[in-house]
Amino acid sequence: MTVSQEKTKVLKPGESPNAFTGIGDQNQLNPLFARAGEATDFPLNVLPPGESLPETAYQVVHDEAMLDGNSRLNLATFVGTWMDPFADKLYSETADKNMVDKDEYPQTAAIETRCWKMIASLWNSPDAEGSIGTSTIGSSEACMLGGLALKRRWQLARRAAGKSTEKPNLILSSAVQVCWEKFCNYWDVEARYVPISDEHKVLDGFELEKYVDENTIGVVAIMGVTYTGMYEPVAEIAKALDKIQADTGLDIPIHVDGASGGMIAPFLQPTLEWDFRVERVASISTSAHKYGLVYPGLGWVVWRTVADLPADLVFDVTYLGGHMPSFALNFSRPGAQVLLQYYLFLRLGFDGYYKVQKASQDVALYLSGEIGKMDAFELWNDGSDIPVFAWQLTKGHTDKWNLYHLSERLRLKGWLIPAYPMPDDISDLTVQRIVVRNGLSRNLAESLISDIKEAVDYLDLLESPMPTEGLKSSFTH
To answer: How far apart are the C-alpha atoms of 210 and 248, rounded to whole Å?
Structure first.
């Protein structure tokens, strides 16, 4: 019997609602927020003792997630927050695929290979068929794999020469993403940080010889520094390493962390030599769930040649009836995102990716231009590399408020724009950063500028300083 066929129970005066024939009738006849399970709280940290209706469980989780806010207004994160309806449909259809089970899902495995070969070509591999790559959970895992390959190549070369493999080190910018700090910590590699400064805003090869020695496994160059979005000049770093090799004989490879720029530079700066056109570049990683435009989490890493990935790091795994090569930190993981990447490659092609990335860059340049015109701010960069830029408070503008207060003020309008200190050596400098992603339209950007101006006008009218207790850095990678 359907709900429409059932007779509505009319309560007599004084009759309890429990006179209904059963809880099932209540659930069918009462579509409002008064069903069993919605009138009381679920336990937060203990498994509930019994079942609940799927509609009830869905509504509770849906409502809690709703409290996170509007992801489209989150200008702190690099991670994509939008895909088109066909991608959503494909995602729901393939969410059950296990990327590691290449015997059961051979077509997904084949598509994974197609994707990294496309990316190898995009990064100007001298021989895409002779290179090797893999998908990962995100760019952090991709970086870890790139770093492991650097360490193992260094160890093999040292052992072959009868030398010690103790105390390996890796050269990094002080503005490096935290995943590299984790790599050095987890795999016992000394992190040697080259400080950035007003004169050298990124690692650019300056005085690199002071950090390099025979135990250096490689140098990490970042295409899109997390703090500011600026490119590190890979070709200039390679030239500095060429000179070091000429002077000392040390042959030190580069891993390019292209978490963001790896999917921007090929389209917006095609003549910039940062990729496998630079011979010293052994491997490149990127985050597909950033400017690869895929939902989280997916990354890619590609090595110039098969020889650049030591064979003893690759396992031949027997799993669910088949054999497969595996080089990963994770095992079972989603295959859907790989298919989403392939969908986007087919859907957009080179021209489509150019248009999407150019639109984001245009919005970033508009925003940085408008913010740069404001007396209160001084730009650190303008978003002409990846569509990300940062600014600082103009010295002497005010002693009543800081960028943390502005960040909090903008949050009242729904905007998430982080304020945070820069790395060591310039940690007394606080900046704000905007990440422009696919989905931030020019109209939204104009609304943001209006809200920033309104917030600054409000703060500038303060007659006494804002409190500074409890202010939090909201840096997001």
So the answer is: 12
Q: Is 302 helix (H, G, I), strand (E, B) or coil?
A: strand
Token representation of residue 163: 């030398």
Sheet holding 430-435, edge to edge: 377-379, 388-393, 430-435, 419-421
pLDDT in tens, 185-215: 999 999 999 999 989 999 999 999 999 999 9
User: H or E element: which one contains 451?
Assistant: helix 442-460
CB 131 within 8 A of CB 125: yes
Task: Please state which architecture CATH assigns to domain 90-344.
Answer: 3-Layer(aba) Sandwich (3.40)
CATH of 360-460, one of 3.90.1150.160, 3.40.50.2000, 3.40.50.1360, 3.30.1050.10: 3.90.1150.160
Q: Has this prediction a pTM greater than 0.85? A: yes
Name 277's Cβ contacts closer than 8 Å, sequence gap at least 6: 124
Q: pLDDT tens for residues 208-257?
A: 999 999 999 999 999 999 999 999 999 999 999 999 999 999 999 999 99
Copy the structure tokens of residue 94: 């393939």
- Torsion angle defined by CA atoms of residues 51, 57, 60 and 61, in that order, rounded to the nearest 10 degrees: 120
Spatial separation of the C-alpha atoms in residues 285 and 301, rounded to whole Å: 4
User: Residue 207 and residue 458: Cα distance in Å, rounded?
Assistant: 45
Helix H or strand E segment including 110: helix 106-122
